[in-house]
């Protein structure tokens, strides 16, 4: 049991106090720090933590330092020096195997004085999987806190320095004067061990099912009179044949490819009954087709983007190869459709001011036509400034021309990236930041083609609050800095950094307008220097699970020609994709977070069930519980594990499961309403 820091104010202490039998946790303020913690000599029958092997300490920046801050300055908290201690950086973990021989842990904690008022860290002590002490947010210059924990009988001590949810810049986290007292007569010592986040992936890879099945989006929209293109996503032993009942006027279905094309004649909503057959049987599913203005991306876009793997090395052949592999690897059969060219395709403008592709792209219209013939859509990239992020030609003062050119070539998606427009802004007010996106929105509205309009301003001006405004009609918007293939990283580009930044954004998203936490970092990635993603298998499962819970665009960022079995499996789990593509369009929010950092995220689905993600940010396996009361449910509820593809049973009141370190268990709770 633990108490809020605010309930401790009357006790003049600023750490959570708690009692976890048989351990007793004492937490006091800086005035209670014993002189012993500043000493050269270890406590009686004890050892300094910095005398252990620090090579297994995990942290978001730099290396753990014995007796110094992370940047190798003398350890100092609150103006007082410490001879011993460990200088770390958030998000950091010190995982200690106590071997059952320890009786006490003591430490002063805080942000090192070398940060001079910067940084923000929360220190947590976890004993045998249970949080026993947590500080409030501590900044550079704050008085340090004192932790004194009874370790008698404990097997594992995990010391965590968290980033307080605002990224880890300047988070020089000190465990100053940290020591462990040993039981009398013991010869064995505790040791710092690996956090073991490379545990085997928690998923079941199923063999291909020969029975036909329809997947992907259950609703799609288009403007009447504009080109319509939708490939029915279906699996099963080939050949497959397709049919449709109640197809709206103006649309036709290719019975052998499953591609629906044409142009809607009128506005309105039509429920189309799709059917796919093979020698094994048949399957039906309803697809709602909506005709009207601004009806794009009624479910989050799914596809591929060139940047995270090729960056400036993208060229026409790489785009064609990605499209070919999207089909041959079966991704289209699970709902992926877009093939998006990011930065560095642009050449100069011609004498009339029309944008031209550079030498890497011979004929943009032919490329678009080729992909459309395959049932795929294609995206492009520009900036509202004079140049793009990579220094190529931007759209500044050519917005109408560029929109018309993109439409004539046949593009279906525009990522519009702020970049050099920063030099044009009069100030950083929301009105100023909105202006270039409003200008391009007006330009796109004039052309005879639908575009998914992706706003990329990194969330600096809270784009989620205005991206769907009537004068912009953004279909998705980047909520954060560019992602990298790390758990956490200086500059808040790591997977966990971005997830934590998504809290609260869900209320601004819905059908046609989605929060976009950036592209997927699974498979072979590397921004022009491809390498296998540095995310562990369980981190990748968490990545796909979280993006699906958030109703985020699923835009693959890897080399599509080198997909392995694991990457293909995490990208084509139809039960998980169904969460992302759920037509109700209500993204998940975080419904709980406990003192150990365990999180539960949940969303309501169109069939009356709930999708629930149990997230473990710690580097060791932890048991996490979701309570039905937090989901608005009562009584016995069925639970299905979506990565194991298993019905795990029916449970009263709650469900508990062991979650891998840096992992997520994604379940569906409840019984679908027919």
Question: Any chance you could write out the topology, listing elements then pairs?
Answer:
Elements: E1 18-20, E2 23-28, E3 46-48, E4 65-66, E5 76-77, E6 80-81, E7 85-89, E8 92-97, E9 102-111, E10 122-127, E11 130-134, E12 145-150, E13 156-162, E14 172-182, E15 191-192, E16 213-215, E17 219-222, E18 228-231, E19 233-235, E20 241-245, E21 251-253, E22 259-262, E23 268-278, E24 281-291, E25 302-305, H1 307-310, H2 316-328, E26 338-340, E27 346-349, E28 355-357, H3 364-373, E29 377-382, H4 399-409, E30 413-417, H5 430-445, E31 452-456, E32 476-478, H6 495-501, E33 514-516, E34 524-525, E35 531-532, H7 537-549, E36 554-556, H8 565-571, H9 574-580, E37 589-593, E38 599-604, E39 610-616, E40 622-627, E41 636-641, E42 646-652, E43 654-659, E44 663-669
Parallel strand pairs: 17-24, 25-26, 25-36, 26-29, 29-30, 30-31, 31-32, 32-33
Antiparallel strand pairs: 1-2, 2-12, 3-14, 4-7, 5-6, 7-14, 8-13, 8-15, 9-12, 9-14, 10-11, 10-13, 16-19, 18-22, 20-23, 21-22, 23-24, 27-28, 34-35, 37-38, 38-39, 39-44, 40-43, 41-42, 41-44
